[in-house]
Amino acid sequence: MPIVDAHHHLWDLRALRYPWLTQPAPGSGVAGDIEPLRRNYLLDDYAGDAAGCDIMRSVHVQAACDPADAVAETRWLQAIADTHGYPHAIVAYVALHLPDAVEVIHAHLQYRNMRGVRQLLNWHDDPAKRQTDRPDYLTDPAWRRGFSLLGQYGLSFDLQIYPWQMADAAALAAEFPETQLVVNHTGMPIDQTRTGLAAWRAGMRSLAERPNVAVKISGLGMFTADPEPLIKQTIEIFRVDRCMFASNFPVDRLYSSYATLVENFAHAIREYSPAEQRAMLHDNAVRLYRL
């Protein structure tokens, strides 16, 4: 069955600056030991990992390069797409809280595969683990002014948050119903305790109540060795027409081969009809990212 990969990354450490890949890490983050990622990951690498998986189209999501290189990343990706066809859509970085957000959006929109924005919003509720560069943007008036621009330009927003941020994110979706939000990494169920998973389910339900919110089922290797229950629960909450397969490669390469990710997802959705399976593997991403 044809597949759209709704979330992957490429990076060239010679062409752009990626502090998280080139500078000493202060400790192990949510992805664990990232040492194997500290090398170039180019389109040939991605194609080799995805070989045999029938990936027809792909969505590149900004790879946390230096914010000063954000537009350069889009330019680099568009050049790759113009030569090789992939990626078919680009989700770029914009610092929505800054006064120049509209100018940066205009710069990205020079490139025809530009579809949306991602600015990492997830902050840890444990002060000892909280990222100092990620304040509570969801409730920040300056950030929300920047977010309001997305609907004017027909851009989606990739929403990377933890479960304890989901109530505020649902309120954001309600305030801006014209803007498509796409939850990243299955809502990041970082707390795998019974209490933590209950909070994740409650937060996901609050997001699913908003018709302009969809979800990418990805990144589960960061949280669990048994992804099937979370895949099934996510589909139950969001329904078939708002769920998408995504690889999160090469980050998920730390936990799995590409083929195994596809096999795990296909196994989890085996009881759905062929049309429903195709929707989650292909059609929903085509529609939501305008491929």
Write up what this structure looks like:
By secondary structure, this protein is α/β, with parallel strands linked by helices. It has one domain (3-283): TIM Barrel (Alpha-Beta Barrel), CATH 3.20.20.140. Helices cover 37% and strands 13% of the residues. The chain has ten helices and eight strands. The chain has helices at 19-22, 43-49, 70-84, 101-108, 141-152, 166-175, 194-208, 228-238, 258-268, 274-288, and strands at 3-8, 55-61, 89-92, 114-118, 156-159, 181-183, 213-217, 243-245. An eight-stranded parallel β-sheet has the order 1-2-3-4-5-6-7-8. The longest helix is centred in the first third of the chain and has 15 residues, at 70-84. The radius of gyration is 18 Å and the shape is globular. The relative contact order is 0.15. The model has no long low-confidence stretch (mean pLDDT 95).
Essential attributes:
alpha/beta, TIM Barrel, eight-stranded parallel β-sheet, 10 helices
The spatial strand order of the largest sheet comes to: 1-2-3-4-5-6-7-8
> Tell me about the biggest sheet?
8 strands, parallel
Structural class: alpha/beta
Rg of Cα set: 18 Å
What is the count of DSSP helices, taking H or I runs of 4+ residues? Answer: 10
Number of domains: 1
Question: What fold name goes in the CATH topology slot?
Answer: TIM Barrel
Give the overall form: globular
Q: Can you give the mean pLDDT?
A: 95
DSSP summary, beta strand count: 8
Q: Helices and strands, in N-to-C order?
A: EHHEHEHEHEHEHEHEHH
Helix content: 25-40%
Give the N-terminus to C-terminus distance in angstroms: 17 Å
What CATH architecture label applies?
Alpha-Beta Barrel
Outline the low-pLDDT stretches. none
CATH superfamily: Metal-dependent hydrolases
CATH class: Alpha Beta
Strand percentage, roughly?
5-15%
